[in-house]
Specification:
The chain is an alpha/beta fold. It has 8 helices and 10 strands. The radius of gyration is 18 Å and the shape is globular.
Length: about 230
């Protein structure tokens, strides 16, 4: 379970990014939605310590994120919206293996496990291909593999489909729906959101609705129409 209690986030300049957020996430698949600049990505980044609360507390399965950041980051994997920000090595195999090497896994074992992880998303045949030659959807899948190979209990993924064409969108969604991890997805893809168990609506730096995904999407659309 992920829990936020009276959480606020402010920049060093005093800009309020989140305000008084109290929230519990305990479904297998949860979406976070809201307009650009509403605070939804800031909220998601709290869950593995990429962002730290200025006030209040965030816990993941009982672990306080502020005081157990390293342990929480082993527990919660995070995939960025732009895969290019996450991919640093020249080939998919090397990039996925890097995640394991950083955890102390020997080179041979890391490469073996990395290749097996790429195979699970249908990219084993591109393991040694240049990262820059991959499609956007393939890059998303490699970035996802680099997180999944570490076997986190939770996966938080920011905008997994927004920049993808129809074929790659379907590929990414097929992978996500088959994962055993608990999933938190930040997304503008409301068709995807409606397939989730629950949704969280963020507006003007605070959570304004939680519940069944379809009902929360309908509330969001009504609010947008009203503006």
């Amino acid at each position: 379970m992920i829990a936020c209690r009276n959480v606020g986030v402010r920049t060093d300049e005093g800009v309020e990014l989140l305000r008084d957020v109290t929230l519990t996430i305990d479904h297998a698949r949860t979406a976070i939605i809201g307009a650009n600049g509403s605070g939804k990505t800031t909220l998601a980044r709290l869950f593995n310590g990429l962002t730290r609360p200025s006030s209040g507390a965030v816990t993941v399965d009982g672990l306080d994120v502020a005081s157990n950041r390293r342990e929480v980051q082993c527990h919660v994997g995070f995939v960025f919206a732009n895969a290019d920000h996450q991919l640093v090595y020249p080939t998919p195999l090397e990039d996925v293996a890097l995640s394991l090497r950083a955890r102390g896994v020997a080179s041979g074992e890391a490469q073996e496990r990395a290749r097996a992880q790429l195979e699970t998303v249908g990219l084993a045949h591109k393991a040694d291909q240049g990262i820059h030659t991959l499609s956007g959807g393939e890059k998303h899948l490699v970035a996802l593999c680099a997180v999944l190979v570490l076997e986190p209990q939770w996966l938080v993924i920011d905008e997994p489909t927004t920049t993808l064409d129809l074929i790659n969108r379907r590929r990414v969604i097929d992978v996500l729906t088959g994962l055993p991890q608990r999933l938190v997805v930040v997304s503008h893809d409301l068709d995807l959101v409606r397939t989730m168990d629950a949704a969280v609506l963020v507006d003007a730096a605070t959570v304004t609705a939680t519940g069944a995904s379809g009902a929360v999407v309908d509330r969001y659309l009504a609010a947008m129409d009203a503006r």
